[in-house]
Write a structure and sequence with these properties.
Elements (H helix, E strand, L loop, with lengths): L12 H9 L3 E2 L6 E3 L9 H5 L5 E4 L15 E5 L1 E10 L2 E2 L2 E3 L5 E4 L8 E10 L4 E9 L8 E2 L1 E4 L5 E2 L5 E5 L6 H6 L1 E6 L4 E7 L2 E6 L8 E6 L5 E3 L2 E3 L3 E7 L3 E6 L4 E6 L2 E7 L12 E4 L2 E9 L14 E10 L6 E4 L17 E3 L1 H10 L5 E5 L18 H4 L7
Parallel strand pairs: 11-20, 13-21, 22-30, 28-29
Antiparallel strand pairs: 1-3, 2-10, 3-4, 4-8, 5-6, 5-9, 7-8, 9-10, 12-14, 14-17, 15-18, 16-17, 18-21, 19-20, 22-23, 23-24, 25-30, 26-27, 27-28
Length: 404
């Protein structure tokens, strides 16, 4: 006798399971049961006939191999109720939810590849007679080339600036972006509306409608483990982390006036003479976000496409207090060689140069995600160059969501 699950169309879920999988865990199947129902005492045949036999079913077959990792295991009981369900590997059990009437149980997690699971179900019939059934199955193995891993910025516990987007990078392309996005969540306290935007099949970002409020606590929940990414690829691991938004540092650079103003939480706290990109190397106007910080780094013109030995080539081994703003190579950094031009002329190859003392002061208070707003040039910043997420109005930005 096969178990049924409730169905809004009048068919039972167990009947659907049986039709699709040909599966039932029948209480009298001694090959599968740890315990069989007690025998009926002599003379009680009439009352026994009035108690329908308990039937249990699940959507995995006993001894099954190559079970898909995205299978959500379900169990159901007919003519009785489920008392307990355990799906696990050794000491680890998957979390699941038992319905209030005891008719169904559903796992809350997908499965791991190349893993043997044991499913143990305890149920009782209408008379309280107890049945225990156990079965094992094994999931399909996946190579690393069949799994995509998500790297996340910012890091867990990091304190960031008000312009910091959540940046998720996948090592193998995600073709089914909509499915992945449905399982990618960013929440904050206080709550701030925002949207995902897919830069490519390997990178998705989330930003709030407006700059983060200082002090916001943010949680990122990527429920991607064993989730289908399309083209035979699955999520390798779920990621969960939290970070905090620090003070609002907004740096406003006027390339035409050769000046930077520093605002902390809305207050002007400093102003510096600077130099930006000369003709042919114009610094981009728009909103940039500090992506990384280095107390010292080597800077070579070859990394930005300027050939060694050319008139504009350079190779400086110890550039101090460097903060990256774009993937194309714009930084804020100490430039003691251009102090005479700072506040007067633009002489750099696109970076924002400052005195060593000024750069050290700015570096000390800055954090990833701080905002640098540039004006004064005719070369625009783009969404894709670094974390340029703020260079599109929010209505336009959210069109990059896979969910519309």
């Amino acid at each position: 006798m096969t178990l049924s699950l409730s169905s809004p169309r009048g068919r039972t879920a167990a009947a659907l399971l049986a039709a699709v999988l040909g599966l039932s865990l029948v209480a009298c199947d001694a090959a599968e049961d740890d315990e069989a129902p007690a025998s009926v005492p002599p003379g009680d045949s009439a009352s026994a006939a009035e108690v329908a036999a308990l039937s249990l079913s699940a959507n995995v077959r006993r001894g099954a191999r190559e079970v898909p990792v995205d299978r959500i295991v379900e169990v159901a009981a007919e003519h009785g109720r489920l008392r307990s369900v355990r799906l696990g590997t050794g000491e680890r059990a998957l979390v699941g939810e038992l319905s209030g009437d005891g008719a169904t149980w559903r796992a809350a997690e997908r499965l791991e590849p190349a893993t043997t699971y044991t499913l143990r179900v305890v149920g009782t019939d209408a008379a309280g007679e107890r049945t225990v059934q156990t079965r094992s199955f094994r999931t399909r193995a996946l190579s690393l080339d069949e799994q995509t891993f998500a790297s996340v910025a910012p890091l867990a516990g990091e304190t960031v600036g008000v312009g910091m987007p959540v940046v998720v990078t996948f090592d193998i392309a995600v073709q089914d972006r909509a499915t992945f996005e449905r399982h990618m969540h960013v929440t904050s306290t206080p709550r701030q509306a925002g949207s995902w935007h897919w830069m490519s099949s390997t990178e998705a970002r989330w930003r709030p409608r407006e700059y983060w409020r200082p002090g916001t606590q943010v949680k990122v929940d990527l429920d991607l483990n064993s989730l289908p990414a399309g083209a035979g690829i699955y999520g390798q691991e779920s990621r969960r982390l939290g970070f905090e938004v620090g003070d609002a540092h907004i740096y406003r650079v006027d390339a035409a006036a050769h000046r930077m103003q520093v605002f902390n939480n809305g207050d002007l706290v400093n102003s510096f003479p600077i130099t930006t990109g000369k003709e042919g190397f114009t610094t981009r106007s728009g909103i940039k976000v500090i992506m990384e910080k280095s107390e010292s780094r080597r800077m070579s013109s070859e990394t930005v496409g300027i050939a060694a030995g050319s008139a504009d080539s350079y190779d400086i081994d110890n550039v101090q207090w460097a903060m990256r703003l774009t993937t194309s190579g714009e930084f804020i950094h100490a430039a003691p060689w251009s102090v005479g031009s700072q506040g007067v002329a633009n002489v750099s190859h696109g970076c924002t140069g400052m005195s060593t003392a000024d750069a050290a002061w700015l570096y000390a208070q800055s954090q990833r995600g701080d905002v640098v707003e540039y004006v004064g040039t005719d070369r625009p910043m783009t969404l894709e160059n670094g974390w340029g997420d703020w260079n599109a109005p929010f209505r336009e930005y959210r069109t990059g969501s896979a969910l519309g």
